[in-house]
Amino acid sequence: VRCLLSKGEMMRRLGALLAGLAMLSLASAPLHARELRALNYTLPADKPVTILLMRPDVEAGSIAMGGTTELNADWTLAVRSNLQTALTDSLKSRQIALKTLPGLNVQDSQMVADYEALHWTVASAMLKWMYGPDLPSKKYQDGKRLPSNQVAANWTLGPEISKIATLSGANYAVFLVTRNYFASAQRTALQIAGIAGCFIGFCLPQGGGGQHIEIVTLVDLSSGDVVWIRTMGGRGDVREAAGARIMIDALIAKMPSRPGEKGAL
Amino acid sequence: MTRSFALALMATSLIGAVPPPVTDPAFLPQDKDERGIWMMSEEAERKFQTSEFVIRDPSLNAYVRDVVCRTVGQAQCKPIRIYIVQTPYFNAYMAANGMMVVYSGLFLRMRNEAQFAAVLGHEYTHYTARHSLRIHREVKKKSDALSVLIVPAAILGGYVGAQALQSSIVSSVYAFSRDMEREADSGSVTLLSTAGYDPHAASKVWEQMRAEQDATAAARGKKSRKNQDDGIFSTHPATLERMTELKAQADKSTGAANSKVSRDAYLKALSPFWAQFVDDQIKLNDLGATDFLLTSLAGEGWSGPLLYARGELYRSRGRPEDLKAAAGYFQQALAAGGAPVETQRGLGLSLLRSGNKVGGQAALKAYLAARPDASDKAMMASLAGVGL
């Protein structure tokens, strides 16, 4: 994007977004998986669980030798489709149906877009809190010690999101945000050469490998509460169907389940 | 010397082929790099399609499309999607996929249609010359080269050698960016001239920007940044250089056939949005630049809308003497005619805050009568002392 002026202004706006991602990438060498869940939250045992998959926010590409990231359109399309298939299959084994939104009129797509934007704002705040300093609010709630990684469901997209439940017939929504930038062959070679140099006393480790961030959020569509969010680094090659299944299985392994369900937390 | 020569040679031997310009209106991305860049633009465009910040008003959109088409040609403009974003900054851009974004702050700063067209023509040239792609390739190529050459540079020249190589490669990327800007500037003069607009409009835009930067600085008691040049790390050429160069190019292509500036059509198209754009500008909290902007727009006399804007500006600062001045401007605006309905609101609020309850409430009532569906109706009614 070329701009005529006001580079500073664009930078400020980008800065807000990047601050969140930078915090992630700092903590991501490799990204240490973390999650937050609503206190003692379980999926309902007395009714079917149907999850709406919001349009996955996906980028896939490569990192050139010198560190330039390049979005790859083919990979991005493949990853978006692979993730949907993998999530459908993975949830099916838990008796959970996954849906996508039907074609929408202008007003509804506007509303859905607003919720996509709101989700990212709320999710970014949660990520900053998760990866941020060790606050007392992470450990105590109303003076009581919390189980680790659990908080009261005080992050919410608001109850009006039930409009999306009506549109889709689902009682939960899942949001996926994934960034998968693979190191190019030259970058990997350069990295290996740099490290190999250490053995002959000329150590020059440069750059790094790829950059992989996977984020999933589960929202209860009756209350709007974010009941679970999890982030992790890359697993499997998501450009391939099998790799996408490996990544999705790892990402949602600790998703809230029904009480008494095998592997329930 | 030999060493630095070797380093310079490394840095300058990285010249690549220039992709041909876009000429077909139905142009599609040609390779992997370009498709990646297009997809990023498409994602950005998805957001604009549903953004609450995009002004959807059909008449303003039709006007902007009209100017774009006149500037770049009827066939060429067809596939361009235009998004007018409500934000008071001076900016416009065209993305690789043919999406054009115009900031509302541009409208306040352009004096006539020809100046507006100059900016659109500049952005359009970035698009046809595929500058996004060229910049991307340039950055990639040079950062790749740096990551490899840094080793021999360090061996040849030590720490200093490595730094020298890095600086020369990085600065060459910025020089490349400035060349793209010069190309776009020059393209805009050609487009203006072909469309029948006065080609001097392009250099006028920069002249005004320099003056506005002076005004901001003066009001804030700082030195103006107008001649600020970040040297080898500037993305854009210095304003003075652009202004001078554009003027010289325009002088070459001036004639009777291309002298249109279309001031009236421009002001007419903007008039329904004037109050809103002024509000947005005032919220930048830059009294110096805003007052300058209004004063220079008033070069041909203080119209009702301009007086309204000036009243709002002083009311926003809100010192006792500002409120008095504001009430005066609002009254003059009402007398001059053509001022937006919000003039009564500004007058009412200024008078109320100056202690004139009777006059203030009367003006607010006049505002509510003229704008019965105002979004701030509840608050204004309570200040006016009337029930809803």
> Stretches of chain B where pLDDT falls below 50 for ≥5 residues?
7-15
* CA(first)-CA(last) distance of chain A: 46 Å
Work out the number of β strands of chain A.
11
Q: Strand-and-helix sequence of chain B, N→C?
A: HHHHEEEHHHHHHHHHHHHH
The residue ranges of chain A in which pLDDT falls below 50 over 5 or more consecutive positions are: 1-28
Which value, in Å, is the CA radius of gyration of chain B? 25 Å
What series of H and E elements makes up the topology of chain A? HEEEEHEHEEEHEHEEH
Given helix and strand content, the structural type of chain B is mainly alpha
Reported for the largest beta sheet of chain B, the result is: 3 strands, mixed
User: What's the total count of β strands of chain B?
Assistant: 3
In what range is the share of β-strand residues of chain A? 15-25%
Q: What is the overall pLDDT average of chain A?
A: 82
Looking across the biggest beta sheet of chain B, what order are the strands in? 1-3-2
Compute the separation of the termini of chain B in Å.
83 Å
Biggest interface, and residues per chain? A-B, 31 and 46 residues
State the share of residues found in helices of chain A, binned by percent.
Answer: 25-40%
Mean pLDDT figure of chain B = 86
Could you please describe the fold and organization of this structure?
Chain A is an alpha/beta fold. Helix content of chain A is 36%, strand content 22%. In chain A, strands 1, 2, 3, 4, 5, 8, 9, 10 and 11 form a nine-stranded mixed β-sheet that branches. A two-stranded antiparallel ribbon of chain A has the order 6-7. In chain A, a hairpin with a 5-residue loop joins strand 3 and strand 4 (69-71). Chain A is globular. Chain B has 388 residues and is mainly alpha-helical. Chain B is 68% helix and 3% strand. Chain B has a three-stranded mixed β-sheet, with helices on both faces. The radius of gyration of chain B is 25 Å and the shape is elongated. Residues 7-15 of chain B have low confidence and may be disordered.
